[in-house]
Amino acid sequence: MRPTKRDELVQKALTAFYRNGFHATGMDMLAAETRISKTSMYKHFRTKEELILAVLRLRDENFRNWLYRRIEELADTPGQQLIALFDALEDWFQEPGFRGCMFIKASSEYQDAGHPIHRQSADHKRMLETYVIGLAQKAGYRDPADLARQLLLLKEGAIVTAHLGHTARPAMDAKQAAIALLENSEK
Amino acid sequence: MRPTKRDELVQKALTAFYRNGFHATGMDMLAAETRISKTSMYKHFRTKEELILAVLRLRDENFRNWLYRRIEELADTPGQQLIALFDALEDWFQEPGFRGCMFIKASSEYQDAGHPIHRQSADHKRMLETYVIGLAQKAGYRDPADLARQLLLLKEGAIVTAHLGHTARPAMDAKQAAIALLENSEK
DNA sequence: TAATAAATGTACCGATCTGTTCACTTTGTC
DNA sequence: GACAAAGTGAACAGATCGGTACATTTATTA
User: Fold this and answer.
1) What residue segments make up the domains of chain B, in order of their start?
2) Closest protein residue to C8 using CA and C1' atoms?
3) CB neighbours of residue B145 within 10 Å
4) What are the tens digits of pLDDT across the range A142-170?
5) Contact at 8 Å (CB) between B146 and A176?
6) In strand C, which positions have an atom below 7 A from any protein CB?
7) Per-block average pLDDT, block size 10, for chain B (187 residues)?
8) A5-184 topology per CATH
9) CATH says B57-184 is which class?
10) Does B171 touch chain A if contact means CB atoms closer than 8 Å?
11) Do B161 and A113 make contact, defined as CB atoms within 8 angstroms?
């Protein structure tokens, strides 16, 4: 189907929420910034929460697609791709508008474990975990899940540290640590 | 010296902000929850932001004191203490009210690099870094700063992952990774 | 006991919040 | 050109936002 006002709204809302936060971004402000009328917004989404959930779905799709492709560009073998993950992170951290992970932010503002926004954020992290476990399996490691979880701790740590410190350095710190972990892991 | 209303307010505000978030916790709600009148709150703090900054100061003091002591209880030598950090984290994750790192949340809701709340959150992380570098130095590692930054990435990653996944497991994942990193590091 | 400081309750301010209503204009399709 | 779908602007509701005003009560201390 053709891209329409709805997609345009979700895309622009993503930008606004990512830059300003969820609670801090009101629907009036959103209407002004996207130049889409409030009436129209509420015709597509019954509540702000539904809009946020749509934004998170788009973010998940965009981010994972980007990451997977970038990793494939950077490395050929699964073993090298596990390391290339951190080179991709560095690219991300160096982007001008980098403000950390949208899902960490979302789960920070909607903390209840049962809240749809919190659950959807957790889903995103689980999908990434599945992906990295897959790489570790293909690379032939004996405990791919353990290894993947450790690498992902480095990834999450690098994201929040890069955001708080306003530097891309954590990407390379994490990469060095990841290399050490891989060298230490049995096949 | 008896605890004053001011201290009581800051202490209770900490609990409320930690559980509900900063934007989502209004001053009226805060007054109701702490049973301290709004008038009184605004006599001690001119703005909500000033209150939040006081809350973060208290949190920093409480958390670092707790962490340092717990680590000293758990291990004697600097080398062992670097690992005990992750046992301490596990204790924290298992506490009933655990909701992640207050400073990550704060910097998530107040994202501008120059914002006082963001800066103060970054200060907290810097002080922790100084502490861990100190341990790595005393333990005799050749590149204590590099090692400390890597260990801290594991720590931050474990915190956000424990919060999102509602499990304490990331503490032990991080601990295993930390042990591997230490074994791999030259003295 | 009297003076003083600290805390209270309540009502209020203007602004903003999420969400709705309504009359009107644009757009795409047959 | 007719018609329906989609989008618009502006006003509005009821609640809440951060913050203030004021008169009253409670504690501390001389």
Assistant:
1) 57-184
2) B37
3) 15
4) 999 999 999 999 999 999 999 999 999 99
5) yes
6) 6-11, 16-23
7) 77 96 95 92 94 97 98 97 98 96 97 95 98 97 96 98 97 98 87
8) Tetracycline Repressor; domain 2 (1.10.357)
9) mainly alpha
10) no
11) no
